[in-house]
Amino acid sequence: MAGVPSPTRIKTHQVYTVWEAAQALGRHRQTVIRWIKDKGLIADRSRVPWLIQGGDLKDFLGYRRAKVRTRLALHHLYCLGCKGPQEPDGKFAEYIQQTPTIGMLKALCPSCGCILNKVVRRADLEEIRVKIEVTVQQATPRLVSLPQPCSNDTSAKEARTHGQTQFG
């Protein structure tokens, strides 16, 4: 299971065993034991089963979640390959308009060469252009309507023959 589990699944005033905490978070019990032994999760290890205060578990998960979240500068894009914020290669990016107010900023990662994507507001584009060069492209037009129905449209034929059986 990917990602950091949500602390909203834990009740602050409840005491959990390792097994109960693992079940509540959708993790294996060995993961919770590893959190206690290696990662600093506070637990009462003086007796078996080990007991974990709900508030301590909630704080631990909230800290881990906050550590994972990355706040990007407006001209930075997140690279999935490098696992961090990157300034586009050559300080060049391409903006593709998707709606009247929002578009996709695309660039190359200078470290690994992956394609970086970031959804940005059209209003922020001028501020981004101060730091990097941005080329604006219009989105490809979508299919709105066709002048005539497709040749493989069988809905009218099916409506006429619906309910009739053919015997050969």
SSE order and pairing:
Layout: E1 15-17, H1 18-25, H2 29-39, E2 51-53, H3 54-68, E3 77-79, E4 84-86, E5 92-97, E6 102-108, E7 115-121, H4 125-131, E8 133-137, H5 155-161
Parallel strand pairs: 5-8
Antiparallel strand pairs: 1-2, 3-4, 5-6, 6-7
How would you describe this structure to a colleague?
The chain has 168 residues and is an alpha+beta fold. Helices cover 29% and strands 22% of the residues. It contains five helices and eight strands, in the order E-H-H-E-H-E-E-E-E-E-H-E-H. It has a four-stranded mixed β-sheet, covered by helices on one side. Helix 1 (18-25) crosses helix 2. The protein starts with 14 loop residues before the first strand and ends in a 7-residue tail after the last helix. The model has no long low-confidence stretch (mean pLDDT 82).
